[in-house]
Amino acid sequence: MHRALAAIGLLLLLASDARGQEPPVEIPPVDRSPFETSGFLEARPAFFWLDTDAALYELRALDDDTLGARSLELNSRVQFDVGYRRGWFGAQTRVVGDARYASGRWTTDATAFEAYVSLKPAPTITIDAGKKTMKWGKGYLWTPAAFLDRMRNPDDPSLPLEGFTVLSADYIRTFSGPLQVMSVTPVLLPVFGRLNQAFGEEGHLNVAAKLYVLLLDTDIDAMVLGGGSRPSRFGFDVSRNLRPNLEVHGEWVRVPHSVTVVLSPDDTLTTRERPATSLVAGLRYLTDASTTFIIDYYRNGDWYTPDEMDVFFTLIDRGAEAWDSDGDDQWLRLAGRASAAAYGRMAPMQHYVYGRVSQPDALGVLYLSLGASAIVNVADGSVNLLPEVLYKPTANMELRWLGGIQYGGFHTEFGEKAADARFEIRARYYF
Question: Is residue 84 within 8 Å of 93, Cβ to Cβ?
Fold first, then answer.
C-alpha cells in the first residue's frame, strides 16, 4: 500500500514537471492615494534670564525699552507638509506659520519653506523647479559645504530650514564594482528683485553643481558654486561607516576671494578680502546601550580674531555709555550694523567644537530621551550648554524641555550674549 502511494506521488511529480510549474498567483496592486499629508502643531513658551551688563543686551535694549532682567516669550508654530506623486510628475510643499508674543506685542508670519514640482522623464533623471532645501554637507551643526542652504539653528540643528527658489536636475547611475553609485546635480539659483534676496547680491544667476559617488562604501560629494551673489567656492565632503556603530564624516571648502566686513579701530566699517578655507571633521558613535555620541570640530575660514571681537565689544560698551549719558546712539547704531553684517553671526571666530550625547528610553522609561549638547568656542573658552528632556506619551504627541546656559568671560562670544540662561517647554502634536 505504501509503495503504491509512493508510486502515485512520483508519477504526479513527474507530470507536474512535464507540464511546467503553475503560474504564480498575481496579487492585485494596491491603489494608493497620490497625496501624502503630514504636519504638526506646537506651543513653545520660553523664559530668559538676561545679562543686563552683556554687550549684545545693550544692542537689544536700544530698540526695546521694555527689556528687563527677565523675559518671557510665547511661541507657537503650525507646519503642513503636502506631497503629490503620480507617475512622472510630483509636487511637494511645506508651509510654516509662526505666532510669537514678546515685549508686549504679538507678531505672526507664514512662510513656504518648500514649494516645488518634480518631473521624472526617465528612471535616471529628475528635474525640480521651485523653492526647496538642497541639504548639501555632512556636518551636524556646521555645514560649510551647504552652498545653497541657510544656516542651521544652533539651539536645534534638526529644525527644517527655509529653502531658496532653484532649478535643479539629478542624473543618477548605478554600477557593479567598487563604484556603486554616481549622480550629477546641476543647480541654477537666480537672485533678482525680491526673489532669493536673502541669498546675496541682487542681479545674478548663480550656478552650482554637485557630483556624488558611492565608492567602496564611502559617500563622497564634490561641489562648486560660481561667483555672483556670493563669492565663488568649491569643496568636498565625505562620510563612511568604519563599523556598524561608528560613522566618520568631514567637509572641506575653499573660498579663494572671501569678503568680510571688518570694524576698524577708528570706528569705521571696511571690507577685507582674503582666501578662506573652512573644514569640519567629526564622528557619530552608538554604544550597545543605544547611547549616541556626536562630536564635530569646525574651523571657520572666514574668522575674526579675539582682538577684532574685542574692538566690536568695546564699541558697544562705549556706545552704551554715550546712550546713557546724553542719548547719543550713533555708536550703538554702528555696532548694530557690524553685528548684522558679520559679527553677530553664528560662530564668528575660528575654532569650535560641537558635542552631543543622547539616550533613548532613559532611566528605564519607555519613550523618555535625555540629551545634552555643547558648543565650545576654543579661541576664547566660552561655552553654550543645551540640556534636553524629551518624552512621547503617545505616538503623535511630543513633550520637550530644553535648557540653555551661556558662559564666558569678559568680551567672549557666549559671555557677551544677551541671555545667560533660558528654558523652554515645547508641546508638539503630529497629524
Answer: no
Report field, pTM of the whole predicted structure over 0.85: yes
User: Could you tell me which of 44, 46, 99 has the C-alpha nearest to residue 71?
Assistant: 46
pLDDT digits (tens, 9 = 90+) for 150-168: 999 888 898 999 999 999 9
Place of cell 527689556: 67
Category of 196 on φ-ψ map: left (φ > 0), alpha (ψ -120 to 50) or beta:
left
Among left, alpha and beta (phi > 0; psi -120 to 50; other), residue 177 is left
What does the alpha-carbon distance between residue 140 and residue 378 come to, in Å, rounded to a whole number? Answer: 18
More confident: 184 or 7: 184
Taking alpha carbons only, the member of 314, 315, 310 closest to residue 329 is 315
Which tens digit of pLDDT belongs to each residue from 239-260? 999 999 999 999 999 999 999 9
Q: What distance in Å separates the CA atoms of residue 212 and residue 218, rounded to the nearest whole number?
A: 10
Q: Which residues pair with 116 in a beta bridge?
A: 92, 130
Among candidate residues 80, 72, 85, 119, the one with its CA nearest the CA of residue 98: 80
Report d(CA 412, CA 54) in Å as an integer.
Answer: 10
* pLDDT at residue 400 tops 70: yes
**Cβ–Cβ < 8 Å for 218, 200:** no
Report, as an integer, the average pLDDT of 361-369.
Answer: 96
Rounded Cα distance between 357 and 268, Å, is 43
Radius of gyration (Cα) for the chain, nearest Å? 27
Q: Quick one: three-class SS letters along the chain?
A: CHHHHHHHHHHHHHHHHHHCCCCCCCCCCCCCCCEEEEEEEEEEEEEEEECCCCHHHHHHHHHCCCCCCEEEEEEEEEEEEEEEEECCEEEEEEEEEEEEEECCEEEEEEEEEEEEEEEEEECCEEEEEEEECCCCCCCCCCCCCCCCCCCCCCCCCCCCCCCEEEEEEEEEEECCCCEEEEEEEEEEEEEECCECCCCCCCCEEEEEEEEEEEECCEEEEEEEECCCCCCCEEEEEEEEEEECCEEEEEEEEEEEEEEEEEECCCCCEEEEEEEEEEEEEEEEEECCCCCEEEEEEEECCCCCCHHHHHHHHHHHHHHHHHHHHHCCCHHHHHHHHHHHHHHCCCCCCCEEEEEEEEECCHHHCCCEEEEEEEEEECCCCCEEEEEEEEEEEECCEEEEEEEEEEECCCCCCCCCCCEEEEEEEEEEEEC
CA 124 and chain centroid, separation: 28
